[in-house]
Design goal:
CATH class: Alpha Beta
Low-confidence stretches: none
Shape: globular
Strand content: 5-15%
Helix content: 40-55%
Distance between the termini: 16 Å
CATH architecture: 3-Layer(aba) Sandwich
Order of helices and strands: EHEHHEHEHEH
Structural class: alpha/beta
Largest sheet: 5 strands, parallel
Radius of gyration: 15 Å
Strand order of the largest sheet: 2-3-1-4-5
Number of helices: 6
Length: 173
Amino acid sequence: MGPTKTYVLTGAPGSGKTSILNYLEFFHGELTIREAAEDYIRLEQALGIAEPWKKPDFQKEILNLQLQRKIMIPMGIQRVFVDRDIADGLAYVGQGDLYDHIYGHAIQQNLEKIFLIEQLGSTETNDVRREDYNQALLLGNRIAETYTSLGYDVISIPPVSLEDRTRMILAEV
């Protein structure tokens, strides 16, 4: 058996990535890795930090958590589905040392396929997701451009039912 194949679900905040990931895990028995940023934000907020994204090391902490989670993938696993990958962080940071640091890790990734989960038509803001619909669309476009610039083909998954989106993804793997 070869190395684990990594499939990335990416796109704008609120596009339904986590729902698809949960569906893949619960109904298809797939190994999945949750979005690091959302988990990190929720933990920090539970510790009393209302806006952890304002911390100067926020994106670096996200990167570290993503790397830690990838290291923990059990040996012999055929494939894993990831809710965002390291390259997503590049869409959130401007040029500079942190961008270069994240980029250095992003180009080392060997990702099988990138699935851009298209926006559902609205975005609900909350304590974790603070981008409105227009900001989310811009981020989704930046993320797609980032993966394309890294040499990946980005496969768009349209805003249809959860079951249909999942079927489309599984048909590609």
